[in-house]
Amino acid sequence: MDIQNPAVDLVLQSALLWSGMIKKADLQLSVHGISFSEFCILHRLFQAPQHRLSRIELASAVGLSASGVTRLLQPLEKMLLVEKEQNARDARVSLVKLSDSGQQIYQDAHQTFGFFANQFMSPLTSRQQDTLAELLARL
């Protein structure tokens, strides 16, 4: 029986590409003592107003569950890269804030990740990168 489905092949190829990219990004970011997932957390916090978000907002921003974000935050808290902060309006909601040392590590790691991203995307022209960005946004 011949079962061919280009969509299945494309999704599997994308998953393999993504997995390889994560491994390479982890290797590059390891010089800063963080993983790609941790970099994503720091990136979203750095972009947030006053460098703080609720755990739920952070989970949504990085595509993880609230418990997944909590597990990622524990080592970042131990490394003093993020801090817990109470919400002044609602004591039941805790915020995650990027610490001063977290901001410094993020900025250093961002430079490293920028070099990695440029190298990773180098087989594509600028126009191809724009097209890929459009296609990914549509998915």
TrEMBL record:
Concerning PROSITE patterns, the annotation shows: HTH_MARR_2
Q: Which PANTHER family match?
A: HTH-TYPE TRANSCRIPTIONAL REPRESSOR YETL, TRANSCRIPTIONAL REGULATOR, MARR FAMILY
State the species of origin.
Rheinheimera riviphila
Which keywords appear in this protein's UniProt record, sorted alphabetically? Answer: DNA-binding, Transcription, Transcription regulation
Q: Which GO terms describe its biological process?
A: response to stress
**Has the keyword Transcription regulation been applied to this entry?**
yes
Q: What is this protein called?
A: MarR family transcriptional regulator
Q: Where is the HTH marR-type domain?
A: 1-139
